[in-house]
Amino acid sequence: xxxxxxxxxxxxxxxxxxxxxxxxxxxxxxxxxxxxxxxxxxxxxxxxxxxxxxxxxxxxxxxxxxxxxxxxxxxxxxxxxxxxxxxxxxxxxxxxxxxxxxxxxxxxxxxxxxxxxxxxxxxxxxxxxxxxxxxxxxxxxxxxxxxxxxxxxxxxxxxxxxxxxxxxxxxxxxxxxxxxxxxxxxxxxxxxxxxxxxxxxxxxxxxxxxxxxxxxxxxxxxxxxxxxxxxxxxxxxxxxxxxxxxxxxxxxxxxxxxxxxxxxxxxxxxxxxxxxxxxxxxxxxxxxxxxxxxxxxxxxxxxxxxxxxxxxxxxxxxxxxxxxxxxxxxxxxxxxxxxxxxxxxxxxxxxxxxxxxxxxxxxxxxxxxxxxxxxxxxxxxxxxxxxxxxxxxxxxxxxxxxxxxxxxxxxxxxxxxxxxxxxxxxxxxxxxxxxxxxxxxxxxxxxxxxxxxxxxxxxxxxxxxxxxxxxxxxxxxxxxxxxxxxxxxxxxxxxxxxxxxxxxxxxxxxxxxxxxxxxxxxxxxxxxxxxxxxxxxxxxxxxxxxxxxxxxxxxxxxxxxxxxxxxxxxxxxxxxxxxxxxxxxxxxxxxxxxxxxxxxxxxxxxxxxxxxxxxxxxxxxxxxxxxxxxxxxxxxxxxxxxxxxxxxxxxxxxxxxxxxxxxxxxxxxxxxxxxxxxxxxxxxxxxxxxxxxxxxxxxxxxxxxxxxxxxxxxxxxxxxxxxxxxxxxxxxxxxxxxxxxxxxxxxxxxxxxxxxxxxxxxxxxxxxxxxxxxxxxxxxxxxxxxxxxxxxxxxxxxxxxxxxxxxxxxxxxxxxxxxxxxxxxxxxxxxxxxxxxxxxxxxxxxxxxxxxxxxxxxxxxxxxxxxxxxxxxxxxxxxxxxxxxxxxxxxxxxxxxxxxxxxxxxxxxxxxxxxxxxxxxxxxxxxxxxxxxxxxxxxxxxxxxxxxxxxxxxxxxxxxxxxxxxxxxxxxxxxxxxxxxxxxxxxxxxxxxxxxxxxxxxxxxxxxxxxxxxxxxxxxxxxxxxxxxxxxxxxxxxxxxxxxxxxxxxxxxxxxxxxxxxxxxxxxxxxxxxxxxxxxxxxxxxxxxxxxxxxxxxxxxxxxxxxxxxxxxxxxxxxxxxxxxxxxxxxxxxxxxxxxxxxxxxxxxxxxxxxxxxxxxxxxxxxxxxxxxxxxxxxxxxxxxxxxxxxxxxxxxxxxxxxxxxxxxxxxxxxxxxxxxxxxxxxxxxxxxxxxxxxxxxxxxxxxxxxxxxxxxxxxxxxxxxxxxxxxxxxxxxxxxxxxxxxxxxxxxxxxxxxxxxxxxxxxxxxxxxxxxxxxxxxxxxxxxxxxxxxxxxxxxxxxxxxxxxxxxxxxxxxxxxxxxxxxxxxxxxxxxxxxxxxxxxxxxxxxxxxxxxxxxxxxxxxxxxxxxxxxxxxxxxxxxxxxxxxxxxxxxxxxxxxxxxxxxxxxxxxxxxxxxxxxxxxxxxxxxxxxxxxxxxxxxxxxxxxxxxxxxxxxxxxxxxxxxxxxxxxxxxxxxxxxxx
Length: 1526
Prior knowledge:
This protein is mainly alpha-helical. The chain is built from 74 helices and two strands. Helix 54 runs parallel beside helix 56. The termini are far apart. 42% of the residues are buried.
C-alpha cells in the first residue's frame, strides 16, 4: 500500500498534473495515514505556501475558485487537530514570511475598498497567531507585525464607519485584531530598543489606533450589532490599544527626552545619562505632527479624531511620568503643547471652530484636559508663584480669557471648563467675573436640560467659592451691575432657578449674617439710586426691578433668622435694612397710585411692589417672634386692625390706598394674584397669633372671608386640569405655572384654611383633588428629584398623606365627590329603576352633610334616629331588593374604563379615617356595583370580571376598618351574604365563568372569598345575632333553589362549572371562618358545631359527586385539593368535642384516596405552584388528623411523606425560587411530622439527610438530590423538635456542618452554581449555626465555615446573583458573631479575612464608573443594600465584641488601603464610612499614631482625611449623645 502513495510529492511538483488534481492529492496526503513522505507536514505546508506566493507574485495563473481552495486548504491545516498534536509532541513546523506578507496585503486590499472575501485569510491569520510556533513569522519580523496591526485597524475602522443594518460588523475581524494586539504586546516587550518601538508606533500605528479608538467610543451601537463585539471585544480591544500606546510612547526611558524638549534645559555635567539608548529628538513634536497630519485620514474626521485623541494621550503621559511630585511640571508643559492642537489658536479657530459641533468637541476635550490637570494635582499655587514665575497661572488665565471672549452658553462643556478653572484657582477666572456672570447667569437663555444642569453646577461652585472666601457681597455687586445694564430684559430667563436657589440658600447659611445684610443693602441701593428715579414708563427698568425683588426675596428668606442671642449690631443693621425696604415699597406704592394702565412697566412694578411687601411682612413677623430686641415699625393698633378685617400690612399706608393697590394688582397678572393669596394667608396667621382663646365673632368672619378669598382667587385656573410643571420659585410664576403654585399654596396650608371654608369650597377642593389624581398626563418619574411640582403630582402626594385624614370635613367631601363620580358613571347607562336607587346615593350624600352640620356629636355616636342613618337604611333595603332581583347594569367600554380608573383612587382611601356614615355609604355603593354590574357583551366579560374583582377587594378592605360594623347597623349581615351569592350565581349563569381555570376567573373567585371571609368575620366579631345570621346564611347555601339545583346529582352535569365552583368556594369560606372561631366561646362552639355538621353533610356528597363527574377536571387540581382540605379541617373541628376514636372521620376513605393520589403526583411531573401549595397543606392536615384519630399505618405514612418531599425538592423542574415560595407550607408540614415523631421516625429523616449530603451525589452531577437534602436540613433545624429528636439531630450536627462546608467548597468551583445552589447551602449553614447556639460544643465545627466562605465566588456574577451571594456570606458571618462570639474571637483573623473580602468586593463594585459601564438604578440600589450590610457588620463588631479593640487599627488600615485605590459613589461611601467610624470609636490614641506611622504616603492621606471627618462629625455627635445618656 505504501508504494501506491509514494509518488504524491512528484505529482505535486509536476507541471503535467492539473491543479485541481494537485489540490485533491494534497488534501488526501494531509488526512491519510497511508501516505508516507519524509517530513510530510512541512512538505505540504511549503507546497501550498509556494503556490499562493507564486500566484500573488504573478508567477502562476490560477482560477479564482482554485485560489480559494488553496486558502481553505491552508486554513484546514492551521486549525486541524493533527497539527496541534504534532506541535504538542514537540515537532517543528515553519511558515514562509511570504505567507504573512500575502495575508497583510489581502487585508489591506479589503480595507481600501476592494470587494474581497477575506474570511479564510483572516481565519488563517487567526490560526497562525494562535500557535506560538507558527506566530514566529510575525514575532521575528517586528515590521511585519506592525504592518499586520496597521492593516487590521484600517479594516476594523472601515467596518465601524459603515453604520447601518445592511453593513453588519464581522466578529471575525475583531477577534483576529484582539489576538494580533495580544501578540504584538508580547513582541513589543521583547524589543530592546525603545526608540525603534517609538518610531514604528508613531509612523505606522498611532493614527490607525486613534482612529479605531475613536470609532469604538463614538459608534451608535444598534440591535443588529453582535453583542460580543459591543460588550466584550470592543472593550478588550480598546484596553489593548491603550496599553500599546502607553508602553510605546510614554516609557520611563523617554522621560529625559520629553524633559529636554518641554523644559528646554540641558543636562548638567554631573547628570547621569541613560546607559542604553540614545535620546529621542522632539518626541512631543513627533506625536503632534502625526496628529495634525492633513493627509492621514478623511478630512471630515480629522478634527474629531484629533480633539478626541489629545486627552487620551495626555492621560497616558500623566500616568507614566507624573506619579511623583518631581515631574508635575513636565505634565503641565505637555498640557501647554497639547492645548493649541484643539483648534483654539487664531489660525486654527477660523478654519475648524466655525461650527457649533466642532466647538462642542473642542470644549469636551478641553474639559478632559483641565480635569486631568486637576485630578493629577499639576497646579500648585505656591510652587508656581515662587519657583516658576506664575507660568501655570498665566496659561490658565489665557484659557479663561479665551473661554470668556468666545462664550458658548449653549454648550454644556463650556460651563464645565469654567468650573474646572474655578476648582484650580478662583483668581484665574476673577478678572473675567463680569463677563462670566453675564454669559453664564443673567443673560444665559438656553433652557435645554443638559445645559441647565451644567450651568447650575458652575454657578453652585461660583457661589460656594465666594461664600468660603467671605466675598459673596463682591459677587453680588457684579450680579447687580449686570442686571442693571441696558439689555432686552423681556428675553432674559428668571434670575434664579430652583437649583440655584437651593445653592444660594446653603451659602447664605454658611456666611456671617452681616454679609447677608450687606447683600440686601446693595440690592436696595441699586433700587433707590438706579431704578426708582426713572421707573415710571420704563419697561426695562420695571423688569429689572422685578429681578432685584426676586433676589432680595431669596436672600431675606434664607438669611439666618435672628433670636435673642443675636449680637445687637446685627439686630440694628437688620432694622435699618427693613426700614430701607419699607421706604422702597412706599415709593413704589406712590408710583402705583395713579390711574391703572395696561403698560408692561405698571404690571411689573405692581408685581415687584407686592413681592417686596410680602417679603417685608414675612420677615418682619419672623423677627418679632424670635428676637425680642427687634422693634417692628408696625404699630400695635395696626396689628389689631386685622382682627376687625383690616387689610393693610404696612405702617404709614392707609387702608383705602392699599385696597386700591390690591384692586389694580389683581389685573396685573398671575404673580400678583399669587402674592395677594400669600398676603391673605399671612393675614390669617397674624389673626390666629393675636386671637384670644375665646372665639371672636368678627375675627372668625374675617378668617372665613380670607380663606374663601385664597381658594376662590385661583378657582378658574383649576377649572381644567393643568399639567405644567413649576420648580417652586416665586419669580417663575406665570400664566402657565400659576395653577400649580396656587394649588401648592392651598394644599400645603389646608390645616390652616380648611376649618374656615364652607361646604361649597370643600367640595371644590375635593373635586379638583379627584380630577387631578385621575389625570394621566404627567408621570412621577419625570419630576426632577422631587423639586418639580405639578397639579397631579401634588394631588397624589396629598391623597397619600395622613394629613388629609386629619381633616375630617375635607376627607368626607372627597369621599362624597368620589361617590358622586361613581354614581354618575353608573347612571350614565340609563338603566331605568336602578337609576332611582343610584339617585338615592346622591341624596344621601347631601343628607349626610346636613347631618354633620347639625351636630358632630350625634354622628360620632351613630345615633340610630338621625336622618342620615334612616336614609342609609332605606338605601340598604333598595340595594338588597335590586341585588336579589338580579337586575343588571350593562356598562359600555368607555364607562367601564372610567370606573376602572376610579377604583385605584378608592383603594387609596383609609377606612379608619372615614366617618361611620361615609364608611357605610361607600360600602353600600360598592356592594350595589358588585351585585348589579354585568358585561354588555361576551367580549367585555373579562374586563367586567376584572372590575368586579377590584370591587370585591375594596369591599373586603372596608370590612377591615375600625368602622367595619357600621354597615351592619343598617342591614343584616346574612342579607348581604345572600344577596351577594344570588348575584354571583346569576353572574355565573350568564356565562362569564365558562373558563373557570382562567387566571381572571380564579383571581375574581379569590376576591369573592376574601369578601365573604371578611363579612362573616365581622358578623362573628360583633357578637350580635351571630347565630341568627350564620344559621340563615348556612340554610340559604344548603336549601335555596340555586343550591338545591347544584346539589342535585341528576342536574350536576347540566350546571355551569362556575356555579359549582362558587358554591364550593362559599361553603369552604364559611367553614374556614367557623373553624377559626370554633372554640372562642362555649355558646359559639355549640352553635358552630351544628352549622359545621350541616355544611359537612352538604359538602361531602357534593365533592364526591364532583370528583366522579366530568366537572372535576374543569375545577382545577388546586381548587379541589383546597376544598377537600377544608372539609377535613371542618370534620376535625366538628368532632373535637368527641373522644378521639380511630375512624371517627366520616369521609376517611376520600381522604386516604386523596393522600395516595397526591403522594403519587407530587413529584412525578411539573406541577403548578398553587397545586403544590394546596397539596402540602392537605398533607399537613391529613397527618394531623391521622395522629388525632390514631389512624393505622402512621409510620408508613410518615415514611411516604418524607420520601415524597425529598423527591419533590430534588425534581429537575423545580427551581430554587419556587422552593422558596413553598417554604411556608413545607415548614409547617415538617413541623407537623417531627413535633411528635418517634425515635424511629426521626431516624428516617436523619438518614435521608445523611444520604443526600454525601459527596457521591455532588461528584455525579446530581445537584438536585443535594439541594433537596440541604433544604430539608434547613427546615428541620428550624422546626420545633422534641427532646429525643433534638438530641439526635445535634449529635449528628458536626457531620452535617462538615458536609455542608464541603458542598460549598466544591460548588464554588462553578460560578454558574452560585445563586441556585451555593447560596441555599449557605442559608442552611446559617440556620444550623443560629440554632446551634449553646449546642455546638466544639468550636472547630464553627470555625471551619470560614474556609467555605472564602471560596464562594463574588466575581463575574449578575447583580442579582451578586447580592444573594453577598448577603448569604454576610448572614453566615453575622450568625457566627451573634451566636458564637467566643469562637469568633479565638479565630478573629479568619473572621476578619472573610469580612474583608466583602468590603473589598463592595468597594470594587461600588466604584465610580464611566458612562459606558454604569448600570441601572435598580442595580445601584442592590449595591447600596450590600454597603448597608457592611455597615451593619462594622457596627455589630464595634458593639458586640469589645475584645476587638486589639485588631481595630488593623480593620481601619485594611479599609483605607482599599479606599485609596478606588473612587466610590458618595451614597455607598457614606454607609461604609459610618461603619468604619464605629471601629474608630474602639481605637486609642496610640492606635492612631501607629496608623500614621505605618501607612504608606498615599494611604496615610486617605486615613488623615477619614480621621478628620470622624473627629469633626461623628465623634462630636457621639460625645453629645453620651452626655445625655444615663
